[in-house]
Design a protein that fits this description.
single chain, about 180 residues, alpha/beta, 3 helices, binds inosinic acid, binds magnesium ion
């Protein structure tokens, strides 16, 4: 992968993300206020920074688990096929579950993950996505909480990669090809 043919332009600042995390965590904590234990499920790898920040703002008893699905490979085009690469460690039957996703793009990943987790009969299953690109949707699905709605741009940072790079940026930037 050639990483010299693009630059990254700032799109959402670290400060805006932090403020939004606090608001989202407040709303999620209110919604699940009566839970005995919330299972926060991060979709690897893109959600690892978001889940760390969001989970620390939740005022709920929590357990954290991870699920990994196959991704875009090294390009910017979505493959419609979604496979589970790493399943949850814990049982979710009868539990409250919050799925944390980095971006809802075509919607195929979320659709597949929700169907899989619903089949395990959780008590409540909700989704929080940091970013939403509604204009790219191919499946009629949406997250219950969304950090930011963005246009059809390829973005990186705050956990999100382009060919495994740029995950460690503290903000969200858009990839601009030279
Ligand atoms: P979907 O199945 O098309 O909704 O794709 C969801 C996944 O594609 C996200 O979890 C991301 O991992 C990846 N993805 C979608 N858009 C972008 C992007 O702009 N940058 C990096 N990854 C992306
Ligand atoms: Mg992802």
């Amino acid at each position: 992968m050639d990483h010299s043919n693009y630059t990254v332009e700032p799109m959402i600042s670290a400060k805006s993300i932090a403020a939004r995390c606090e608001t989202l965590a407040g709303e999620i904590s209110d919604y699940f206020h009566d839970t005995d234990k919330l299972i926060v499920v991060g979709l690897l790898r893109g959600s690892f920074v978001f889940i760390a920040d969001l989970a620390r703002e939740l005022s709920l008893p929590c357990e954290v688990d991870f699920l990994e699905t196959s991704s875009y490979g090294n390009g910017t085009e979505s493959s419609r096929e979604v496979r589970i690469l790493k399943d949850l460690r814990g049982e979710i039957e009868g539990r409250d579950v919050l799925v944390i996703e980095d971006i809802v793009d075509t919607g195929h990943t979320l659709h597949h993950v929700k169907r899989l987790l619903e089949s395990r009969n959780p008590a409540r299953l909700k989704v929080c996505a940091l970013l939403d690109k509604p204009s790219r949707r191919e499946v009629d699905i949406s997250a219950d909480w969304i950090g930011f709605e963005i246009p059809d741009e390829f973005v990186v940072g705050y956990g999100i990669d382009y060919a495994q790079r740029n995950r460690n940026l503290d903000h969200i930037g858009k990839v601009v090809f030279k």
